[in-house]
Amino acid sequence: MYNYYNKKIVVIGLGKTGLSCINFFLRRDIIPMVLDTRNSPSRLNKLPNFVKYKLGPLRCEDIIFFDLIVVSPGLSLNDPALLYAKKIGIEIIGDIELFCRELQFISVVAITGSNGKSTVSSLLYNIANASGVKVILAGNIGTPVLDTLKDYAQLYILELSSFQLETVFSLSSEVSTILNVCYDHIDRYLSGIMEYRSFKLRIYNNSKICLINVDDIFTFPFNKIYKKCISFGSYTGDYCMIKYRGSLWLSVYGKRVLNTSKIKLFGFHNYINCLVVLAISDIMSFTRKIILRIFSLFKGLKHRFQLVHKRNNITWINDSKSTNLSSTIAALINFKNNIGFVWLFLGGILKSTFLSSLDSYIYKYKIKLCCFGKDGMFISSLYPNISIYRNTVEELIINIMPIVKSGDVILFSPACSSFDQFKNFKERGNYFLSIANKY
Q1: For residues 222 and 330, what is the distance between their CA atoms, to the nearest angstrom?
Q2: Residue 117 is a catalytic residue
Q3: Which of 9, 160, 383, 384 is most buried per CB count within 10 Å?
Q4: Are residues 81 and 110 in the same domain?
Q5: Active-site option among 117, 269, 351, 368
Q6: Is there a domain that residue 1 lies in?
């Protein structure tokens, strides 16, 4: 464990994560300074009166006198003040690093990826829990990880974002995996996808086993020759899919394990997620009987390729969690042989996404684009022959309902962030659910 006494500490960011960092220090009778770039952060009223704080733009003179900066994942390390702090040798870490420094003799499974990490983490949590293991799921999902230190655990499942991995140095895990790496958060990583990838790869540091995606070379560790790697993939890899007598099976080292018809989750990309969970579960020695039983029961998470309903042979899918194009494409692939049209809802705030990667699907599949929100008009302008634009999703639904037919799919998978019209993807998804049920 680290000793933070006699250190001058500043916590930057007063969101949920920042507050957990502040409370971490207060429990140790250490009072940090608090900074927040916002003028009125929503959790300011949760800050004890004796903790000093300052609001507004981050300035070099605000932080140069501190020994340790604990920064929330929402703030880019490319902020000029943080760049200067790093240059003069001030230590900069985040909540995950604080957590890892405290952890002793407890197993960790670490999961990251551009898409699918919440589904994989939650499914694995259910298996561990059903196996009688005292397990805690934390990180980029649920409770801030520092708030769980008071709880007894035999296993931690950490879902980690690239933002969190930027400030992690002491993570050590039994197994770690990068599910996929795609163009996402490029507005934050100005050097491009390789910078984004470099932070994802940190998850492999000090990991006993690296679980890599053979379909995505960006998930390979730099020093894979010296690492123990196990692989998964669509149709190649140690854990992969096998076609047998007209059915699709999960397989392990060439041996069929489970017919995908027995899996409750919907969609091919979710079968890949199950392969990942199966691999990690095998590494952690969970019994196959429990693993396969949970696969047959786990319905998935809300807003992630969620089957809303199927009425009049029209399928409604809520995939609001799709905030990047690769996630939308993963959803779309499930309908490549659909007899009717796929009414694909795209819109929100584009994150420097190259929409050209959508082209091959647009022209191969039977697709109509329904574009909305801040960048919806721009998206619609790229595909004028097959798209319509309205400001809101409800306006679009009203327009298309008279022409939607039996066999069609209404796929709400926006490929954009939601902050133009909603607080987050959950609010956006709930909005779509209300409309889907209304109409």
Answers
A1: 26
A2: yes
A3: 160
A4: no
A5: 117
A6: no
